[in-house]
Amino acid sequence: IMVKENTDCATCVNHTCLIKKHVNDENVSKFIDRKITVKCKKSQQFILEGAPMHGLYFIYNGKIKVTKTGIYGREQIVRFAKPGEIIGHRGISKDNRYPIGAVAIEDSTLCSFSNETLAEMLKTLPELTYDLMLFYSSELNVSETKVKTLAQMTVREKVIDVFLYLFRKFGQTKEGYLDIALSRKEIADFAGTTEEQVIRVISSLKKEKLLQTSGKKIGITSDYLLKKEIADHNFFLDN
Description:
The protein has helices at 18-21, 29-32, 115-124, 126-150, 155-170, 184-191, 195-207, 223-229; strands at residues 2-3, 36-40, 45-47, 56-61, 64-69, 75-81, 86-87, 101-104, 108-113, 211-214, 217-220. It is of the alpha+beta class.
């Protein structure tokens, strides 16, 4: 649902957001006035893979999963995103189509800039363009490293790496559970394995007292020991 509503950039607490970073630049204010606020309900898809690009999204609040269709039509989760992060940037290309899909994991609010506004911003705000270039470079580096390293990991190591990634990115609640609610299938779709294998690994880690669970909720009881287990790969996915 798109609504014209002020998610005030000046008072926004997402200091990692590229728009927030440049909010005091007088040249940015005219573009901020053009942004559209998008409200997404839990499980709502707001970017359809292969669809024409209609804008760039900055997450104001909520959590998002970014997906891509894999072999035999199976969904692969390529990353998760939190407040302050960008969604839809991969659509900036010659054919202007989204190569990914995006779904809200929980009720979320997004700030959207249209293609036309985005093009004007990038042409007139060199510091913003430079920061976006650095973001692309960092994301490409992470993606290439992930492809290389995950090919060498066992299923157990892949699942452990996913839990550590979620732990670093979203943290844990005061009850000691990851602050993101994912199904076992979603964990499998991100780890590149099957739901059955994820369930087996979780069961083993629980017996070893490295994880605790309560229904869908999963908590890490020793991030140190989990890191130690995959330390040989010298790889921790931070983005």
